[in-house]
Design goal:
about 325 residues, binds beta-D-ribofuranose, 14 helices, two-stranded antiparallel sheet, globular, binds calcium ion
Length: about 325
């Protein structure tokens, strides 16, 4: 089984993604690491613990991540209008009884990469601060980690925070640029792909009929996420950003990929923009792309198969 660590800001689609991973016979979840994004980091940790408790998987460790961006900005973009003020659909769940482990997310990531060199896949579902911190902590981390699969960016399409930026990259663009250029085996799944993968109102009704603790939990929290999509995108359904990214770890053949350098704009009105360059060879002057490591970027997706896998899970 593929060993995965999920770096997450739960988050309704994060909850879906975590459940897909827990249900997958192809994956072994080594741990969850938490980040700010949909909620602040303290709440992300609380939600991660709550999700694991709800489905009886408290054997999986949770390591709390950074509360601030890599450049120590404490003013964060928190998407409570998408996921509810508690991040889990305004359910006011009781506080979890379990606790995060003593290690920080970055230390846990480095430790697991050392323990299983070349074998750990990190599925990153929030801003990339913890991964950038792991790289800072151990510059050989990119060589020791097996793969990093990132829900982040918008490739040749508009962002979802603004026309330029997708939310996870916008959350910490400096961290994202460090990660995209670190030389690890990276696969990026962006909005150009995830906006094709919709869990419809009809799928939701099917889930409501389903006798499963996973489905029941998701149905309880999903309402605000559906409302937001109706309002913001005029669609009858929700985008499966984070589950699609876990599914890329389970079955990479459900997508096709291209390869090139990705850099992230860190300032100005295009802050958070992911710039993709697949030029084979660069001549002439030195540019911010010259000699940079390449990453894989998802370009097409078998959306019905991804939705089906999510529903089956
Ligand atoms: C990403 O941002 C968050 O709102 C979602 O959980 C997902 O990871 C989509 O842009
Ligand atoms: Ca997320």
């Amino acid at each position: 089984r593929k060993k995965v660590i999920i770096d997450t800001d739960p988050g309704i689609d994060d909850a879906m993604a975590i459940f897909v991973a827990l249900r997958s016979p192809e994956l072994e979840v080594l741990g969850l690491t938490t980040t700010f994004g949909n909620v602040n980091t303290a709440l992300a940790t609380r939600n991660a613990l709550h999700l694991l408790e709800a489905v009886g998987r408290t054997d999986i460790p949770v390591a709390e991540g950074s509360h601030v961006t890599i450049k120590k900005a404490a003013k964060l973009r928190i998407a409570s209008f998408v996921h509810g003020s508690d991040g889990l659909g305004n359910q006011d769940f009781p506080a979890p009884t379990t606790k995060p482990i003593d290690q920080t997310a970055a230390v846990f990531l480095v430790e697991q990469a050392n323990l299983y060199p070349g074998q750990v896949t990190v599925v990153a579902l929030g801003p990339l601060t913890n991964l950038a911190l792991a790289i800072e902590l151990d510059p050989t981390f990119p060589k020791k980690i097996g793969q990093i699969i990132i829900l982040g960016g918008a490739y040749s399409v508009n962002g979802n925070v603004n026309p330029a930026a997708e939310a996870n990259i916008f959350g910490d663009p400096d961290a994202a640029d460090i990660v995209f250029t670190c030389g690890a085996d990276i696969l990026a799944v962006g909005l150009n792909v995830t906006h094709q993968v919709v869990l419809t109102d009809a799928d939701r009704e099917k889930l409501e009929q389903c006798d499963s603790k996973y489905a029941r939990y998701l149905c309880k929290i999903m309402g605000v996420y559906f409302d937001y999509h109706k309002d913001a995108y005029f669609i009858k359904g929700v985008y499966l950003h984070d589950p699609t990214t876990v599914i890329a770890a389970i079955n990479p053949s459900l997508m096709t990929y291209t390869e090139g350098v990705v850099r992230v704009q860190t300032v100005g009105i295009t802050k958070g923009l992911t710039v993709f360059d697949n030029t084979k060879k660069r001549y002439g002057e030195i540019t911010p792309w010259t000699g940079m490591p390449t990453v894989k970027v998802a370009v097409t997706v078998d959306a019905p198969a991804v939705v089906e896998l999510m529903m089956q899970s």
